[in-house]
């Protein structure tokens, strides 16, 4: 989908950064398992977008030190530990264009990284405008010039989202009352879908 949009509007390539190891979780030895690269490349060919996707078969930490190009949409979805999500954000955020959007997958699942980076580096920052959650994805628009206009909305969301931080510190499964407490606090975080026209007005 992103490749077709980029091709239609002449936006340049969608950049994919992924080591394409078999196991998509962190911490497991997957060296003996087949790579996901061939399946990924085949999917791009079938969709007719291969020429519009720039593939880096590498870890993000290998790519970010040499990155120089402006980014309009930064999608972070990989190592969900705090260290992993923080390094992804810190490595590429300096290149996010004013008006660009950053999004974190699994921010409302019990991983420590996405939600903590979203709360500490975005919701508690004065550099972002519209912010929100759609299902488990957290998103924010980088708007340093007029971020103060959105301070109230950011602070309101931060108060609710920050309640999840004590529950995800272990970066592992939750049990018993801890699990119930996490789900209760998560239910208080607004995360409904945003209509495309409303989103366009919000980001413009």
Helix/strand-derived category reads alpha/beta
Helix and strand element order: HEHEHEHEHEEHHHH
Oligomer: single chain
Distance between the termini: 22 Å
Largest sheet: 4 strands, mixed
Q: Which spans have pLDDT < 50 for at least 5 consecutive residues?
A: none
Number of strands: 6
Number of domains: 2
Strand fraction: 15-25%
Percent helix, as a range, is 25-40%
Approximate shape? globular
Strand order of the main beta sheet, please?
A: 3-4-6-5
Average per-residue pLDDT, rounded, comes to 92
Helix tally? 9
Gyration radius, in Å: 18 Å
List keywords for this structure.
2 domains, 40% helix, 204 residues, alpha/beta
Structural features, described:
It is a single chain. The chain has 204 residues and is of the alpha/beta class. The protein has 2 domains: 1-58, no CATH class; 71-203, no CATH class. The chain has helices at 2-9, 37-47, 60-63, 82-92, 112-123, 151-161, 165-168, 176-187, 196-203, and strands at residues 14-17, 53-56, 71-76, 96-104, 128-134, 137-142. Strands 3-4-6-5 form a 4-stranded mixed β-sheet. The chain has a two-stranded parallel ribbon with strand order 1-2. Strand 5 and strand 6 form a beta hairpin. The chain is globular. 24% of the residues are buried.
């Amino acid at each position: 989908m992103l490749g077709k949009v980029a091709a239609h509007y002449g936006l340049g390539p969608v950049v994919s950064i992924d080591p394409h190891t078999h196991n998509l979780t962190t911490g497991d030895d997957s060296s003996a398992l087949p790579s996901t690269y061939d399946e990924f490349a085949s999917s791009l060919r079938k969709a007719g977008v291969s020429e519009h996707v720039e593939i880096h078969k590498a870890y993000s930490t290998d790519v970010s030190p040499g990155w120089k190009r402006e980014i309009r949409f930064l999608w972070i979805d990989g190592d969900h530990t705090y260290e992993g999500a923080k390094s992804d954000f810190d490595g590429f955020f300096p290149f996010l264009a004013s008006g660009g959007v950053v999004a974190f997958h699994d921010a409302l699942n019990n991983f420590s990284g996405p939600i903590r980076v979203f709360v500490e580096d975005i919701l508690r920052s004065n550099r972002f405008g519209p912010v929100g959650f759609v299902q488990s994805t957290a998103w924010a628009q980088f708007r340093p010039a007029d971020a103060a206009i959105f301070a109230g909305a950011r602070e309101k969301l931060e108060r609710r989202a920050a309640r999840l931080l004590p529950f995800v510190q272990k970066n592992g499964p939750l049990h018993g009352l801890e699990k119930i407490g996490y789900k209760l606090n998560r239910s208080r975080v607004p995360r409904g879908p945003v209509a495309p026209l409303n989103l366009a007005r919000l980001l413009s």
